[in-house]
Amino acid sequence: NKQQPTLLVTGGAGFIGANFITYYMEKYPNSYLLNIDKLTYAGSTANLSEVAPLPNYHFINGDITDEALVSEIFADFDITGVIHFAAESHVDRSIQDSKAFVETNVVGTLNLLQAAKRDWEKKDMLAERRFHHISTDEVYGSLGEQGKFSEDTPYDPRNPYSASKAGANMLVKSFGHTYGMNIVISSSSNNYGPRQHEEKLIPTIIKKALAGEPIPIYGDGQNVRDWIYVNDHCRAIDTIYHQGNSLETYNVGGSNEKTNIEIAEEICQILDKLAPEYRTRTSSDSFKDLITFTEDRKGHDRRYAVDDRKLRNELGWKPTEDLKTGLQNTVDWYVTQWKTHLTH
Ligand code: NAD
């Protein structure tokens, strides 16, 4: 029913968006949700198999840069809020070719802002209806061994992906300040969990290990990332969307700072127990021996870590998944997914 108050989610066929929609529809079973996703290489409707049959879930295969389509969505549905995930998200791809990153992440965000502003202004709802941009701690740049990014850390993006996300954040903020739109931004650290595209670090480690191929780790493996379980991030988004203050940014962290090599070793240990039958492809006792250092990523940020006390103290959120259990669940999920495709 198109006249029901409807939450518009963009990029919901991707990793975090699909986990979020699945979480949201379970938590709010009577709400109406519309997902627009272009289904690029990174998106898949298979990620949404649990919600697809629901009558109050609606999917549109479309591009957020398409002005006519986005306007039509706001004309046809009563969009009462936007949670904007859609993005080109892979740093390595942005280093190869950054155009799609600017188109989707910057121009696409602007297009959504303009359509929302037009519709909500007409309905005199500009200050009530919320536009939530899902962003990243990468906009803050790179840290040394000490310190953390706070919400006030100036943006200092170092690769085309993070530059495009910083640009989108700036536009979102400007619509809040210039037009009085009710905007909020959440900047999270690295997510892990089920449904992530296999090009990203953790799925790559699992996939290569199961295939008995070298597990590629950039540089010296000492780059530090803070890891958050995707479900903890989904709960944070729910909290910020419903309770966050307009014009504010909230950092979202997992309090799990690890070097890339630590993550790879931890996953190998889990696989040693969980899938020893696949080790017959290797000659050694542990998947760890497959870890191989490769030429470093250009402009590779050394360390990210976020200070998320604002979200914890003001809105009462905290992550609940410890890294060991979260990784265990994640590895379990991929092994089950891929078992059918792999012979050992
Ligand atoms: P993803 O690449 O898995 O999914 C992105 C989704 O957006 C895909 O389904 C894709 O089809 C869709 N999409 C891309 N271009 C589109 C367009 N022009 N129109 C409509 N849909 C389009 O990404 P993800 O990891 O789920 O990240 C989601 C959001 O969270 C992104 O904005 C990203 O910047 C942000 N983020 C991700 C992480 C992380 O660790 N993955 C961390 C912090 C922030």
Give a brief rundown of this model:
The chain has about 350 residues and is α/β, with parallel strands linked by helices. The protein contains ten helices and twelve strands. The protein has a seven-stranded parallel beta sheet with strand order 3-2-1-4-5-6-10, with helices on both faces. A three-stranded mixed beta sheet has the order 7-9-11. It has a two-stranded parallel ribbon with strand order 8-12.
Q: Looking at the structure, what is the overall shape?
A: globular
Enumerate the spans where pLDDT stays under 50 for 5 or more consecutive residues.
none
Under the CATH scheme, the architecture of the largest domain is: 3-Layer(aba) Sandwich
Here the CATH topology of the largest domain equals Rossmann fold
The radius of gyration over CA amounts to 20 Å
Structural class: alpha/beta
Strand content: 15-25%
Overall structural domain count: 2
Q: How many individual β-strands?
A: 12
What can you see in these coordinates?
- This protein is of the alpha/beta class.
- It folds into 2 domains: 214 residues, Rossmann fold (3-Layer(aba) Sandwich); 85 residues, UDP-galactose 4-epimerase, domain 1, CATH 3.90.25.
- Helix content is 40%, strand content 18%.
- The protein is built from 10 helices and 12 strands.
- Strands 3-2-1-4-5-6-10 form a 7-stranded parallel beta sheet, sandwiched between helices.
- β1, α1 and β2 form a beta-alpha-beta unit.
- It is globular and about 65 Å long.
- The protein starts with a strand and ends in a 5-residue tail after the last helix.
- The relative contact order is 0.13.
- It binds nicotinamide-adenine-dinucleotide.
